[in-house]
Specification:
- The structure holds two protein chains of two kinds.
- By secondary structure, chain A is of the alpha/beta class.
- Chain A has a single domain, classed as Glutaconate Coenzyme A-transferase (3-Layer(aba) Sandwich).
- Helix content of chain A is 21%, strand content 17%.
- In chain A, the strands form four sheets. Chain A has a six-stranded mixed β-sheet, sandwiched between helices.
- The longest helix of chain A has 12 residues, at 35-46.
- The two termini of chain A are 27 Å apart.
- The model of chain A has no long low-confidence stretch (mean pLDDT 97).
- Chain B is an alpha/beta fold.
- Chain B has two domains: 7-97 and 153-284, Glutaconate Coenzyme A-transferase (3-Layer(aba) Sandwich), CATH 3.40.1080; 116-150, no CATH class.
- Chain B contains eleven helices and eleven strands.
- In chain B, strands 1, 2, 3, 4, 8, 9, 10 and 11 form an eight-stranded mixed β-sheet that branches. Chain B has a three-stranded antiparallel β-sheet with strand order 5-7-6.
- In chain B, α4 (82-89) links the parallel β3 (65-70) and β4 (94-97).
- The termini of chain B are far apart.
- The model of chain B has no long low-confidence stretch (mean pLDDT 97).
- Classes of the chains: A alpha/beta, B alpha/beta.
- Chains A and B meet through α3, β9 and α4 of A and α4, α5 and α6 of B.
Chain lengths: 267, 291
């Protein structure tokens, strides 16, 4: 029943690759920050993990994901419980959540940053958001990373300028913790799929998107990526998955998320 | 008993150097009329605790702020708050940068009269490095270390709600009360602006009392300012004013905060502000965002 698609965009490939992060997570809140991660979580909930939970990005939990485009009001959405921001923290601290987030910096320890860049802490060169919920999320539940433009600016050579999420850095490991207590899921980029399950929790290449080479990944990563002898190609979306993505995004907002909206196969 | 005050009477109770909590979240249900009244005042050296949006940006730009306690400051659809960004990048403000949930714990600790609440949040990150006052402690019950999130005691909290009676019963009818309940409880004095002032009997109808999240003894003063959250939202009554925020953001590039102040705040009453942004009817007709 699953027919690999011939025509698909890179954004669609990243959605279907991202959905895999939620496949074996069981009954947890799936949070995708940004349109493509949200589509990835929604696709997983509509297909191979129907036990997932999802919010309306406001104050209700849904039994059916909302489309990411084309809605004019919250009328008719499938709410199943109130889930205001304070209850989100109750959920986060229970550990029953998997978030897919898009950090500005990721380092070799899997630590990430959305707070500030450069300068000093007292006077950063570029102030961004602040740490938001990253410290609590990262120590409480698994998180996957979504990187729309794989470069050494994101995958930085040193440590993140401001470490907003805990990673696999032995020097920062809190007393009573083991590195395995930190859960980082998949790392989805516009070039490949990776995880932090390499040697000593190093970054490891899992699959290359069609037409992308190992060299491109290595060149655009500011630290070592473990490259297995045989690297598979990221599985193409199936026609069935593309149909569900079209239902979840009827106005094709996904076409504007990756610069130039390239085709999924770049060979 | 009547707790009804004017916005000027509220701001007259805010002194230099106080710690103030501001309710709402990013561009949502901020007590902006009171913020504008603060901008017109000569109060300074404030420590501001907030899930920050333009409230924090404006107070920083106007030189009212000594320190910001924050997890983020964002306009949401414009991710980076332009004037908070300028303040941080010029090194002009002190900070306590913490996780969103840590702020909730700090407000709860203050509300409950305990010095701190232990949490795992912040361990392994720079949050515990850049905040030397944040202690990491051993537990008497296990072999792990824990962050002791201190009580965030507030001198004053400023909130905006849908409805209140003159005794300080406050109703939030929108889908989320955010952390307003905890701001109300964590403060010595809580001042609330309301879209509507109702008779006490209003709350006895149907399930109206279910939308009241703190008891009136937590409310010090009530001010009637319909549209008082503008340009932030007051769901379900009105959404946030996207064109206004874009214009505000533009002032960071050209004209500066003084340009914004001159156009909308300085020398203007709240009624004149509302006229300058198109009138109360226009504010209340601002569509709600759909995510």
């Amino acid at each position: 029943m699953s027919t690999p698609a011939k025509d698909y965009t890179l954004a669609e490939l990243m959605i279907t690759a991202g959905a895999e992060a939620f496949r074996n997570e069981g009954e947890v809140l799936a949070t995708g920050i940004g349109m493509l991660p949200r589509l990835a979580a929604s696709l997983a909930m509509k297909t191979f993990n129907q036990d997932l939970m999802m919010t309306d990005s406001e104050a209700y939990l849904l039994s059916e994901p909302n489309p990411v485009t084309g809605r004019k009001s919250h009328e008719g959405q499938k709410s199943e419980t109130w889930m205001g921001f304070s209850r989100i923290f109750d959920n986060v601290w229970s550990g029953k959540r998997h978030a897919m987030v898009g950090p500005t910096q990721i380092d070799r320890f899997g630590q990430s940053n959305i707070s500030a860049l450069g300068g000093t802490y007292e006077q950063p060169k570029v102030m961004m958001l602040g740490v938001r919920g990253f410290p609590g999320n990262s120590i409480s539940h698994p998180n996957s990373f979504f990187v729309p433009s794989h470069s050494t600016k994101t995958f930085v050579a040193g440590e993140c300028d401001m470490v907003a999420s805990i990673g696999y850095n032995p020097e920062r490991l809190p007393k009573g913790y083991e590195l395995d207590d930190v859960k980082i899921g998949l790392v989805i980029t516009d070039l490949c799929v990776m995880d932090f399950n390499g040697t000593n929790h190093g970054l490891r290449l899992l699959s290359l998107h069609p037409g992308i080479t190992t060299e491109q990944v290595v060149e655009n990563t500011g630290f070592e990526v473990e490259v297995p002898a045989d690297v598979p190609t990221t599985a193409a979306p199936t026609e069935e998955q593309l149909e569900i993505i079209r239902q979840l995004d009827p106005k094709e907002g996904r076409a504007y998320q990756i610069k130039g909206n390239p085709a999924g196969d770049r060979s | 008993m009547s707790k009804v005050l004017s916005a000027q009477e509220v701001v007259a109770q805010i002194e230099d150097g106080m710690t103030i909590g501001i309710g709402g979240w990013g561009p949502r249900r901020k007590p902006m009329a009171l913020i504008r009244e603060l901008l017109r005042s000569d109060v300074k050296d404030l420590t501001v605790v907030a899930y920050g949006g333009a409230d924090v940006g404006m107070l920083c730009a106007a030189g009212k702020v000594k320190k910001v306690v924050f997890a983020f400051v964002s306009l949401d659809f414009i991710p980076l708050e332009p004037f908070f960004r300028k303040a941080r990048q010029s090194g002009s403000i002190e900070t306590m940068e913490i996780d969103e949930g840590m702020m909730l714990l700090g407000l709860r600790a203050a509300s409950w009269g305990v010095p701190y609440i232990p949490t795992q949040i912040g361990l392994g990150t720079d949050v515990i490095k850049v905040n030397p006052d944040l202690k990491v402690i051993d537990s008497p019950y296990d072999n792990k270390e824990w962050v002791a999130m201190p009580a965030l005691k507030l001198d004053v909290s400023l909130l905006h709600v849908d409805r209140a009676d003159k005794r300080g019963v406050c109703q939030i009818k929108g889908p989320d009360m955010y952390m307003d309940e905890w701001f109300a409880r964590a403060a010595d004095k809580t001042f609330v602006t309301a879209e509507e002032i109702v008779e006490t009997d209003f709350f006895a109808q149907g399930d109206e009392a279910r939308y009241v999240f703190w008891e009136r003894s937590m409310t010090t003063g009530v001010t009637h300012i319909p549209g008082g959250a503008h340009p932030t939202s007051c769901s379900p009554a009105y959404g946030f004013d996207v064109p206004h925020f874009k214009e505000y953001n533009g002032f960071a590039k050209e004209g500066g905060f003084e340009g914004y102040m001159d156009k909308y705040v300085t020398g203007k009453t709240e009624a004149e502000y509302q006229q300058a942004v198109g009138g109360l009817d226009a504010i209340q007709a601002t569509p709600l965002p759909v995510y």
